[in-house]
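TICKET #2291
ISSUE: user wants both folds in one file
ATTACHMENT 1:
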Amino acid sequence: MLYGNSSIGKTETVRAISKHFFSDKIYEKHLSMFQNVSAEHYLFGNNPNRTSIGFELLERESNLVFLDEFDKLNNYFYPVFYTLFDNTLFQDATYRVDISGLIIILTSNYHNYEEMKKHLGLPIFYRIDKFVHFEDFNSATIRKVADMEIASYVKNSDSSLCTNLINARVYPKINAYGENARTIKSKVQQVIEEVLFEKALISTELTEQ
């Protein structure tokens, strides 16, 4: 279980594991979307004519399983994961699958063990083998992420953006604490858009002259 606040590197860590150890192949599900009858059919495999988790595990190309936003999963579906976490064979209503080699990585926005125990319940909590807490970004990390975002925009821009100009306008907008990858990217993008708009406006005015 990788846990901590949103947008501080949990998913990126899983992507790196997939890239370096599993040839960039991964079985991935975003559990926040599993809230309706379609999810029930998928997880319990009630209909052999529908795609199910059992079928997809049988056809998987990788033993890396990524279950994102486990904290958003409806607890009605927990029995499926009792089986998935506990056994070397997974069986739904239709398929029986060898899962003895799986590495299952979960992510969540929980802050501590007590919060996990309360919301997941002890049967799920004690089936999780290891927990990795992701700390909020410190000021050095915030600066590094901002630098990376700016460099990426400048590199991929068709226009001749000035890095120093972008830096000078981005950094006053970014807080020393309390930022995450999403908020930093949004602020950098806002500045880039403003600069590009200004450049386009100047170019139009010069053309009209």
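ATTACHMENT 2:
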Amino acid sequence: MAAFSLARRLRAGETVFSAWCTMASPLVAEQIARDGFSAVVLDQQHGLWDTATLIAAVAALHHAGSSPLVRVPLADFAMVSRALDFGAEAIIAPMINSVADARQFAAVAKYPPLGERSWGPIRAMQLQGRSAPVEYLREANEGTLTLAMIETATALSNVDAIAATPGIDALFVGPYDLSTALSGGKAQDVQAPEVERAIDQICAAASKAGKIPGIYCSNAERALAMAKRGFRFLTIGSDAAFLRDGTAAQLKALNQ
């Protein structure tokens, strides 16, 4: 896989569909990649990934020709640079609610002069085929992506300023938390009118700022619909859901 291939594709205007993995199995993540997903998110916020399984999965995805992304735990900015050093090509950071949050995220993800990321991408260079440090350094700020999650009412009110923050490459909608927040904790209807309006507002803010609009989708049908509305990085379901759906289909066939 070419180094920084996800960034190159998205910056060229392509639409990318990604899988989402929570089960902390590098083999499962690799199989999903080999089955055709060109990008896979490893979810540390709500998934079961620890550092050891994360390192193994990032490498497995590179070897499978797929771009690894990591969603870091809430406010764990230290893991941002570590995950990039492990070879992740993009970081999704939850609950980016303000410009201050966005700046802190960008600072640990980008090298000077854009940010303050500390040097040490030895494993990333191996996986991305870069032997000269200056070569990786020259490409890393453009080649590694920062996706700021917009999933609260506060973030929505600050969305234009967050999108305009230097070092933030994309806005990523967390529709379930967003729907919970906008309903005052009463519902998780991601297609409620106020949520749909917010989703379009976030997409428009990203596009206006020249950033990449992204969103989590529960299934392929929703992802295709969101792509038509302007989103260009779309994640679909989860490894657990894929397993559950496949098992259910086989059991249904057996029980007919």
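RESOLUTION: both attachments delivered.
EXTRA DETAIL ON ATTACHMENT 2: The longest helix spans residues 239-255.
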